[in-house]
TrEMBL record, chain A:
Chief location of this protein within or outside the cell: membrane
The keyword Protein transport belongs to this UniProt entry's keyword annotation: yes
Compositionally biased spans, kind Basic and acidic residues: 227-239
Family, as annotated: Belongs to the SNF7 family.
Coiled-coil regions, chain positions: 78-173
GO biological process, one term: late endosome to vacuole transport via multivesicular body sorting pathway
Record keywords: Coiled coil, Endosome, Membrane, Protein transport, Transport
Protein name (database record): SNF7 family protein
UniProtKB/TrEMBL annotation, chain B:
PANTHER family: VACUOLAR PROTEIN SORTING-ASSOCIATED PROTEIN VPS25, VACUOLAR PROTEIN-SORTING-ASSOCIATED PROTEIN 25
Entry protein name: Vacuolar protein-sorting-associated protein 25
Alphabetized UniProt keyword annotations: Cytoplasm, Protein transport, Transport
Gene Ontology molecular function, alphabetical: protein homodimerization activity; structural molecule activity
Amino acid sequence: MGGMFSFCGGSARKDQISDKDKAVLELKIQRDKLKQYQIKINLVIQRETEIARECAKNNKKQQAILALKKRKYQEKLLEDTDQNLMNIQEMVSTIEQAHIQIKIAEQLKQGNNALKELHKEMSLEEIENIMSDTQDAVDYQNEISEALSGKFTQEEEDELMAELDQMEKQQLKSKFPEVPNNDLKINVNLDHVLPTKLPSSPKSKPIAAEAEEIEVGIEEVEASSKPTKERDRVPEMAI
Amino acid sequence: MSEHSSPSVKSPPITSAFPFPSYYNREPFFTLQPILNTQKKQLQMWQELILSYTRYHKIYELDINEYIKRGSELFNNEKIKRKLSQETIVAIFNEIVDSGYGEWLDKDKSRALVWWRKPDEWASIIYQWVVDSGQTDSILTVWEIQKGDDTKNLEFHEINTNILMKALKSLEKQGKAQIFSGSENNLGVKFFSTH
């Protein structure tokens, strides 16, 4: 056996086997042995049971009882090994748990150190400066935003104008009814509506006389308005 | 070789429910063919049969002389009254070893390992189980891999120690495991998670 497994030494990752690993291996080897022992005991129990049954059948009462007593003893051994197995399993679990806890503690310590290093790189004063700088920048940005708000680009303005045009056109359309497109073919006899001769009224004067009257009227009006100016001037011209 | 290598050597099955292929019932199959091409084909068919038979029965290691002595069905077809001669069996196993599916265990060419799974295949199956059961970074004994309650329903339960050690060595080469010995030459393995 030794020859076959001699390659175990000198391997690259040998260093990864710690004393804890060796301790666990020893415990587990012990557990394996107990399990093998249990297999053996179980075989003995089986055999004693068979012997007892055989003896009982052949009326060998004493031998049957002896076999049963032997079986009882083996069963007690089995119980003891169960207890031992449990103790070993507990020990293995405890070691593994302790190992995990150590690893966790180490990692927490590392994390703590890393945190400290990070804190060193940034003092509280610096943070305050940065925060106030940031506030200034935010204020400045707000000012810029305010200054810019309400102003549009040429493009946006063109768009707005186009929209307005569109709205106006639509409004005009809704004000006037549609002009029918088709040709109207209506023949109205206007003779019924308009008489060819105007009816002559007996009261009315001939047109020429009427025109004379109007002319006279105008002259009268002119005469009544002119003299005020002429009357004012006359004395001057007379001198 | 004490307790570690012997437990998985089974006595040869005399008869079983193994579904033999139809060519197993043809007489010429049991006589080594003189024409080289035919013989080559015949040896390959025997190799296939032996690998599937040993896989079916989970036989990892067999003793040819024992199989002949017991008249195991593998080399002895009762129905057609034909059996393989010892020389023919050796020729077949030479072929198996040459193709990388086995290994002679002695100079007399009687005992041989049959690898219906190659050690590398076993290595990845075992490593997968270790990872899936969260056992990386913990210690396992070689015995518990073979016989433990946790492996009872797994393919490698009761695996031959010789093949298991080859598989573990392969994992060691890949940096996935470390074999180390405890008291009384009992072996343990520590499995690593791959980074």
